[in-house]
Every structure is written in structure tokens, then in C-alpha cells.
From TrEMBL:
This is Histidine ammonia-lyase. GO terms for molecular function: histidine ammonia-lyase activity; phenylalanine ammonia-lyase activity. There is a cross-link at residues 145-147 (5-imidazolinone (Ala-Gly)). Belongs to the PAL/histidase family. Pathway: Amino-acid degradation; L-histidine degradation into L-glutamate; N-formimidoyl-L-glutamate from L-histidine: step 1/3. It is found in: Cytoplasm. Its main location: cytoplasm. Pfam families: Lyase_aromatic. NCBIfam families: hutH, PRK09367.1. It comes from Streptomyces harbinensis. Its EC number is 4.3.1.3. It comes from the Bacteria.
Length: 524
């Protein structure tokens, strides 16, 4: 676990904070301001709990059962029971980083002073995170409305010392044992606290924030591999001129074109031909690369803006509205838990991912087709016919692209009623987030296959070196780095899966971007 500590206040949490906790084990602690805000909200809840009038979430049942007034002696049982009954997920476990993200985001909301939980409940959640204890959360159980109910319930169950969790050593054990080993006392929930632990969009938001972080690097990686392919195909970089992209001022397009131009700087291969048929224009998959990747960049910026709004929110139902303007603090029911804003952008990103993968695969296929590769051997094989080269690598890439197209079908257009028609419209945002995670992993692999093909094709252009025609400095740096990373080059056929896996990790870890930027400087 990392020793870096994040102080969680009533506001101010950043996307980088979420990634630091989810992926890098940053420790968390509550600020004094958060404790003050939480204490004030708790006092308001306890005041309302002492009154005879029913208050939703404080002294009533939940959902379709909200009509029942719950007597004081049953309220602790009510809060305990809602956690137990809602911890009803099924299917495989979700990833550790997803669970840590949703727990941290729920802690952030508790610290806002709008949920009415006691500070000690938030302290317990922070202690569980800091101990490296990860509740077992299942794939299925959230409809993305009333928040991510089942996933958050499994986390709340761990705070109560019930259910199962993964320890720092990776073993799944009873939560009670893990809490005891780390000196953490299970919480005994009081009025509203069970509901406050469950009613948030934290799973959707956490996955969105991590996808945004990943896609920022992948869009730059795609610019690099597109430039390498253009170079290997002896294409022209004139279409990347800034003045051409200024005529159509989409910001992302300009960034991608500039990135490609910098990768191609100093290349001796661009604008030359290996065959007798002159090319006035390159194919769309090469020429329009900045337009497609750039559109993805602009989609990402929209998604980041939406994620920023949600990160600044305190999502709960009911919510504590602090005293202001002479009015006392109050607890109000609301619909802020609906995941539509997140579901829409999660689906939008999946569409952008699928289209970027599609154009990437088309470039790869062009490199492998001797009729369109301008002098390269069939399938970039060492001895075509005896060797198959990268033929089946492109099959794998095509299978991934087909899967990404299926994953681009929106989840957020679906809705299925629940809770006896009380919750009669839901967002399916959790499902949108889950399929986007799969899509991001798929795009990484698709870009990795193009990297394998483009670097091999550049090596096969060595015959042009005698004419003074060599790849540019950035391409040469990538070639050296990717070979050092275990991705083999041209030659006799060999067991190819390890090469592809090494290329995938090279892209995923940011090594492709780093190797390029060592020559070009920071890319957009």
C-alpha cells in the first residue's frame, strides 16, 4: 500500500484522487471541516428522528415500503436489514480497483455533510480502505438508479463485520476476521445510516473516471500508431497541416493532427511511392485518422465535464439540507441518485472506442494486403506462403473490433421497472460502465496489433535506406523500445501470442507514449 495520504473534506475531491486511492493504494483521512459538517448533519437527523412525524429514510421503510412508520426500537434493525437484504449481487467479482473507487467516492459523499451519518461511520470506511480490505462485490445487482444499490450494500456489509472481503494478501475471508485483525470495530448503524451507505452513483462514477484516465493515454497511443502506419505506407503528411485543421476547428482533431505531425517529423518515408501507380490521396483510414481520433478526444472532454459535475455532487436520498436563511436544517427526498447523466456519457465513450478501433483495424489490414501496402510483402511475412506473418493477428484484431461494436450498443436506452413500480424508470448506468471497461481493454489490444504491424512494416522498408529514405527519429525510438519490451520483428513465423501480449502491455502501461515523447516532447 502506498503511504501517500489524501485528506477528504466536504468538497474538492479530484479525479486524480479517485485514481490514487483506487489503483495506487493512497491512504485517506477525514478533514476537521468534514467532521464538523457531518456532526451538524447528524444533529439534524437525530432531531427529526425524535419527532412523531414520519421522515423518509429516518423513521420509515424504503422504496415501495416507505409508507410504514418505524418505531424507535426497530430503527437500528431497519438500517441493518436494508444492508443485508440489498447485498444481493450475483455473478463474478468486480475488480479490486472498482470496489476501492466506489468506497472512496461514498466516503467523499459522507464527508460532505449531506448524508447525516455519524463521523465514526466514515472513519470505519476510511480504516477499511487504509487496511487494504476489499469487500466482495458482484457483477450484477445495480440498475443504476437509487444508486448502485447492491454493490454499495456489499461494501456496507463489510463495515458491519458481515459477508466476505479480500484481505491485503489477496485471500477472501469473512469480513469479521479481517476487521478484527486490523483493529477495526464493526459499525452498528443508526437512523438513516444504512440507507446513506447504499444510495449513490459511486460505482458508475468510479468506472467513468478510470476509463477517462485510460482513454486519454489510448487516444495519444492511437495517434502514434496511425502516424507509424502512415509512414510505413509511404503516405503523405501534408493532410496534417495545421491550417487545414483550423478550417474545421474541432479541438480534438487539431490535437490529433498535431500529434501525428510531430511523430512524423524528420521522416524520409512520407510522400514516397514503392509502386508505379501514383497516389493522389491516401485511404480514409490513414487520411482521416485525426478526424476520428479527434472526435473521440472531444467525446472524452464531454465525459470529463459530466464526471466533474458528479464528483462535485453529494448523491443521497433523502439528503440533509443544512440550515440557511433562517430556515432550519431539513431532510428532503429527491431524485439525484438517477444515473442517466453518467449512463449517457459511458455509452457515448463506448461508441467512440468502437469507431476508433474500427479505423485502426482498417489501417492494419492495409499494411498486410500486398495490393494496398505499396511494396510490402503479403501479411508482412518473412517468406510469404511458407510464413503467414501477421495474418491471424489481424483476425484477432477483427474479432476484438466486432466485439467492441456490440459493446457500443447503448445500455442507457434500456429501463426495467423495479420495487413494485415505485422505481419505474432506471438508468442501467452500471451496465454501461461495465461494458465500457471491457471496451477500453479491447481498444488497448486493437492498438497493440497495429503497433506490431506498423513497426514490422517499417523494418521491412529497410531497403529504402540506400536511397536515404529512413523512418523519422520518433519511429526509430518506438522501434527500439518495443523490441526491448519483447515484441519481435520481421522474420520467420514464431509463436505470436507472447508478442501480442507484450505489445498490449507496452500500450497499456503508457510505454508507447513515453518512448515517443522522449523524442517529440509532450504530445497533446
Amino acid at each position: 500500500m502506498a503511504m501517500h495520504s489524501l485528506v477528504v473534506g466536504p468538497s474538492g475531491t479530484t479525479p486524480a484522487d479517485v485514481v490514487a486511492v483506487a489503483r495506487h493504494g493512497a491512504r485517506v483521512e477525514l478533514s476537521p471541516a468534514a467532521r464538523t459538517a457531518m456532526a451538524a448533519a447528524r444533529a439534524a437527523v437525530e432531531d427529526l428522528a425524535a419527532r412523531p412525524e414520519p421522515v423518509y429514510g429516518v423513521s420509515t421503510g424504503f422504496g415501495a415500503l416507505a409508507v410504514r412508520h418505524i418505531s424507535p426500537e426497530l430503527r437500528a434493525r431497519l438500517q441493518r436489514n436494508i444492508v443485508r437484504s440489498h447485498a444481493a449481487g450475483m455473478g463474478p467479482r468486480v475488480e479490486r480497483e472498482v470496489v476501492r473507487a466506489l468506497m472512496f467516492l461514498r466516503l467523499k459523499t459522507l464527508a460532505s455533510g449531506h448524508t447525516g451519518v455519524r463521523p465514526e461511520v466514515a472513519d470505519t470506511m476510511a480504516a477499511v480502505l487504509n487496511a487494504g480490505i476489499t469487500p466482495v462485490v458482484h457483477e450484477y445487482g445495480s440498475l443504476g438508479c437509487s444508486g448502485d444499490l447492491a454493490p454499495l450494500s456489499h461494501c456496507a456489509l463489510t463495515l458491519m463485520g458481515e459477508g466476505e472481503a479480500e484481505g491485503p494478501d489477496g485471500r477472501i475471508r469473512p469480513a469479521a476476521e479481517l476487521l478484527a485483525e486490523h483493529g477495526i470495530s464493526p459499525v452498528v448503524l443508526r437512523e438513516k445510516e444504512g440507507l446513506a451507505l447504499l444510495n449513490g452513483t459511486d460505482g458508475m462514477l468510479g468506472m467513468l473516471l478510470m476509463a477517462c484516465a485510460d482513454l486519454a493515454g489510448l487516444f495519444t497511443a492511437a495517434d502514434i500508431t496511425a502516424a507509424l502506419t502512415l509512414e510505413a505506407l509511404l503516405g503523405t503528411d501534408r493532410v496534417l497541416a495545421p491550417e487545414l485543421h483550423a478550417i474545421r476547428p474541432h479541438p480534438g482533431q487539431a490535437v490529433s493532427a498535431a500529434n501525428m505531425l510531430r511523430v512524423l517529423a524528420g521522416s524520409g518515408l512520407t510522400g514516397h511511392h514503392q509502386d508505379d501507380a501514383p497516389r493522389v490521396q491516401d485511404a480514409y483510414s490513414v487520411r482521416c485518422a485525426p478526424q476520428v481520433t479527434g472526435a473521440g478526444r472531444d467525446t472524452l472532454e464531454h465525459a470529463r465535464r459530466v464526471a466533474g459535475y458528479e464528483l462535485a455532487a453529494a448523491v443521497d436520498n433523502p439528503v440533509v439540507v443544512p440550515a440557511a436563511g433562517g430556515r432550519p436544517a431539513r431532510v428532503e427526498s429527491n431524485g439525484n441518485f438517477h444515473g442517466a447523466p453518467l449512463g449517457y456519457v459511458l455509452d457515448f465513450l463506448a461508441i467512440a472506442v468502437a469507431d476508433l478501433a474500427s479505423i485502426t483495424e482498417r489501417r492494419t489490414d492495409r499494411l498486410l494486403d500486398k495490393n494496398r501496402s505499396h511494396g510490402l510483402p503479403p501479411f508482412l511475412a518473412g517468406d510469404a506462403g511458407v510464413d503467414s506473418g501477421l495474418m491471424i493477428a489481424q483476425y484477432t484484431q477483427a474479432a476484438l473490433v466486432s466485439e467492441l461494436k456490440r459493446l457500443a450498443v447503448p445500455a442507457s436506452v434500456d429501463s426495467i421497472p423495479s420495487s413494485a413500480m415505485q422505481e419505474d424508470h432506471v438508468s442501467m448506468g452500471w451496465s454501461a460502465a461495465r461494458k465500457l471497461r471491457t471496451a477500453v481493454a479491447g481498444l488497448t489490444r486493437v492498438i497493440a496489433v497495429e503497433l506490431c504491424a506498423a513497426t514490422r512494416a517499417l523494418e521491412l522498408r529497410d531497403g529504402l535506406a540506400a536511397q536515404g529514405l529512413r523512418p523519422g527519429p520518433a519511429a526509430r525510438a518506438v522501434l527500439e523500445a518495443v523490441r526491448a519490451a519483447g515484441v519481435g520483428g520481421a522474420g520467420e513465423d514464431r509463436y505470436l501470442a507472447p508478442d501480442l501480449a507484450a505489445a498490449e502491455e507496452f500500450v497499456r502501461a503508457g510505454s508507447l507514449v513515453a518512448a515517443t515523447e522522449a523524442v517529440t516532447g509532450p504530445l497533446g
